[in-house]
Amino acid sequence: MRLRLLVVLAVFLISCAPASAQLEQIGKALGLGSKTQLGDTKIASGLKEALKVGAENAVKLTGKTDGYYRNEAIKILLPKNLRTMERGLRAVGGGQKVDEFELSMNRAAESAAPEASKIFADAILKMTIDDARRILNGGDTAATDYFKSKTTGELTITFRPIVKQSMDKFAVTQQWNALVGQFRSIPFAKSPSLDINQYVVGKALDGLFFMLGQEEKKIRTDPTARVTTLLKEVFTH
User: Fold this and answer.
1) Exposure winner among 8, 23, 74, 120, fewest CB in 10 A?
2) Distance of alpha carbon 110 from its chain centroid, rounded?
3) What is the full per-residue pLDDT of the chain (237 aa) written as tens digits?
4) Angle of helix 40-62 relative to helix 129-136, nearest 10 degrees?
5) Phi, psi values for residue 28, rounded to 5°
6) Is the Cβ–Cβ distance between 105 and 203 less than 8 Å?
7) Pseudo-torsion of CA 131, 137, 140, 142, nearest 10°?
8) Residue 125 CB coordination number (10 Å)
C-alpha cells in the first residue's frame, strides 16, 4: 500500500517533467536508486531481468509432468457448463473415464508450456522504456499483463498444434467422444458441445499466466526471489 501511494505521488509530482527523465524520477521517488542514482536504462534492464526470471520459473513450473495436474490452482477440469455431464457419468460408474480424460487434458497443457519460452524472450527484447515505465508504475502483476497483451495471440497459434498432437497421443479426443457417447445413453441427457482443443489451449494459457503472475509478485515482495544483483538493486525499496 505504501509503495502504491508513493507511486501515485511520484507520478503526480513529475507529470510535467520531460519524458526522457520521468522513469528515472519515478525510480528515485520510490527509492529505486537513492544511493546509486539508477537511470531509466538500468531500471528498464532490471524490469527485463524480472520478466526473464519470472517467465523462466513459470515455464519450468508448468512445463513438466504434473505441472498442471497436481497444481489445484491451474488444474484443467471439465468446463462448468459440463459439470452436469460429469455428475451423470460418475453416477453411472464413469468416474474413472472422467478422471482419465482430465489427466489427458493436463498432460497436453504440460507438453505445450515449454514452447512459451522463446515467445516470452522475444517479448522481453521488444520491451521499450515506455513499457518499463508502465510496468514499474503498475500493480503487482503489471509485467504479467504486459506479457498477456504481447504474447497471447502468438502463444495461442503456437500451442494449438502442440496441444492437438499431445491430445492425439493421449487419445483425448477419443476419450471425449467416448464420454459423450456414454452420457448420451443416459435417459433425457442433453448432448454437450465443446471444442476440446480450443478449450485446452485456453486453459493452458490461463494457467501459464497465473503462474507468471505469482512469480512476479514474489520478485516484487520477496527479497529471496531476487536472484540476480540487478534485481536486488532495482527492486530494493
Assistant:
1) 8
2) 13
3) 444 433 333 333 333 444 444 444 444 433 444 434 457 777 788 788 888 888 999 999 999 999 999 999 999 998 776 777 777 767 777 677 778 888 988 999 999 999 999 999 999 988 888 888 788 778 889 989 998 999 999 999 999 998 888 877 766 667 666 666 666 665 555 655 667 888 899 999 999 999 999 998 888 787 787 777 777 777 765
4) 70
5) -65, -40
6) yes
7) -20
8) 8
Q: Check if the beta carbon of residue 172 is closer than 8 Å to that of residue 108.
A: yes
d(Cα 176, Cα 20) in Å, to the nearest integer? 56
Q: Which three cell numbers stand for residue 61?
A: 513450473
Query: Cα separation of 131 and 141, whole Å?
Result: 14
- In which element (H, E) is residue 20 found? helix 19-29
Q: Tell me the three cell numbers of residue 41.
A: 536504462
Q: What is the pTM of this model?
A: 0.73
User: Which residues, at least 6 apart from 91, have a Cβ–Cβ distance to it below 8 Å?
Assistant: none
Sign of CA dihedral 169, 197, 77, 109: positive
What angle do helix axes 83-91 and 95-112 make, rounded to 10 degrees? 140
Contact 120, 147 (CB under 8 A): yes
